[in-house]
Amino acid sequence: MMRRAAGAATALLVAVLLFSGWKAAAASVTWVRAPGAGARTGLLTVRNVPVRAPAAGPLAEIARAERAIVFIYSPDCAVCHANMANWIDLVGELRGGPVALYGVAPMDTPPARAYWGGLARHVRVVTATPAEVHTAFGVEATPATLLVERGALRGEVVGSLTAAGLAQVRRFAAAGQAPRAAR
User: Fold this and answer.
1) Of 112, 105, 71, nearest in space to 90 by CA
2) Domain for residue 5, yes or no?
3) Whose CA, among 98, 123, 137, 167, lies 20 to 30 Å from 92?
4) Which residues partner with 161 through β-bridges?
């Protein structure tokens, strides 16, 4: 059983290298070694801080949303690609509901919009500079899933969403349930 799991992990790494190239693999290694990487558990961290978005533009639109789930990603990020299945599940469940869905890429490139494919009609995709994303949300690494409510960042999940992290995001999406940390 252990050999099978190790073989699957090796196969996944090889697939990432072949699919994304060395640059993306190196970016994922840099991301893993980033300061605070141990805190990137895929679980919700309750924040309750104001969004510091500019007065105009797409980040201001997110700050004004009644309730929003924001997917921060980079099209070159291998960890983001691995997390995409979680985001697809969330978009499939939440599209057309009371929670606005945004995808924010910290770069202005054509792949940023193409990344979502057919889901782009359910996710408002915007781009911003890394400095704008950091100023507005305090995000330093991708992927990050943010929970925004009436101008405040209520919580964030940094890294690939775990089953518990997905459940926490779903609770936020349900009307009237504020985020809370996992126990």
Assistant:
1) 71
2) no
3) 137
4) none
Report the CATH number that the domain containing residue 92 is assigned in CATH: 3.40.30.10
Domain carrying residue 88: 36-173
Domains held by the chain: number: 1
Tell me whether residue 23 is in a domain.
Answer: no
Residue 6 lies in a domain: no
Question: Helix 78-94 crosses helix 2-32 at what angle (to 10 degrees)?
Answer: 100
> What is d(CA 61, CA 9) in angstroms, rounded to the nearest whole number?
40
**Do the domain assignments include residue 99?**
yes
The whole model's pTM is what? Answer: 0.74
CA 42, 61, 103, 174 dihedral sign is positive
* Residue 100: both structure tokens together: 């606005």
CB atoms within 10 A of CB 29: 11
What does each C-alpha distance from 145 to 6, 29, 42, 160, 172 come to in angstroms?
Answer: 28, 20, 9, 9, 12
| pLDDT computed for residue 91 by the predictor | 92
Average pLDDT over residues 52-60: 88
Region 142-166: what's the mean pLDDT? 91
Rg (C-alpha) for the chain, rounded Å, is 16
Q: How far is CA 74 from the centre of its chain?
A: 9
Omega before 143 within 30 of 0, i.e. cis: yes
Q: What are phi and psi of 38, to 5 degrees?
A: -65, -25
